[in-house]
Amino acid sequence: MSLEHSPARNSVRRHAFKIAEFCEAHRISRSKFYMLKAKGLAPRITDVDGVQIITEEDAAAWRRERAEEATAAAPVTAESSPQHADSAPAASF
Q1: CATH of 15-66, one of 1.10.540.10, 1.10.730.10, 3.40.30.10, 1.10.1660.10
Q2: Which residues of the chain have pLDDT under 70?
């Protein structure tokens, strides 16, 4: 059995991803990754001796940026708009 498929390998915390590993971990296809890259929306890729990796920090920064974009683009709804002082607060579930 190769080390790549060893059960013990899955328990090791990753500090960097290969592109395929990043895609799997973030549940996106490689074609979607390259579409994002073409738009300048992919995480920073570091070349280490010919191997392209995405560090844990760059992956985290990418997730934050995507979350901020999604929040900024979210439509304003009645629930997210400011309430009048005399109205009761909305129930939170």
Answers
A1: 1.10.1660.10
A2: 1-12, 78-93
